[in-house]
Amino acid sequence: MANTYAPSGFTTAALYGAVAPNYATRTATIAYNYGTQIAFGDPVYLNTSGDIVLYAAAGTTIHGIFRGCKYLDPSSGRTQWYRYWSAPTLPSTTVVEAYVEADPTMTFQVQTSGSALTQADIGKNADIVTSSSGAPNAAGTSTCGLSVASIADTATLPFRIVGIVQSPAINFLYTPGTGNDWAIVTMNTSDITTRTGQA
Q1: Domain boundaries, the chain
Q2: Which neighbouring-strand residues pair with 159?
């Protein structure tokens, strides 16, 4: 019986070199009028203006995993931190500072959608489930998952599978190898390591 499919985006696991992560994030910006929601744990990429935007299935490079943002709230007159980008209506003078885990050596746990992962899938690449990014739950957490159907050796797929989770960090009943498994991935098309600049 397959595991329950209940993805929660990309959860920090560890640096690929196996040392404990320090959860360091880099700052980026979101355009004040960007109209698409970005959930905590969603993948993002840099657009041509240098701002981050939501990564959707069939994209190219990845800048990192979104970890919240802050900006001057026009209703309170105070700078506030938000777990996710809700695409609010803001004055054009607003600077939105975002936080992104962008280290290309970081690994993440993410739930897969579809048939069971096998040992042969390790080392292959995969894309996210179509329409799973940009759909935060009530707490602002990502519902993004990794598509088993997309697994291939295609170099342009955004995530590299480096392991299969045997005991996930999230506390629920889980049996690996039964479908809707949890994978450990790295960013295969990180814009930090990709040699072609943003165009």
Answers
A1: 11-17+103-187, 26-101
A2: 126, 187
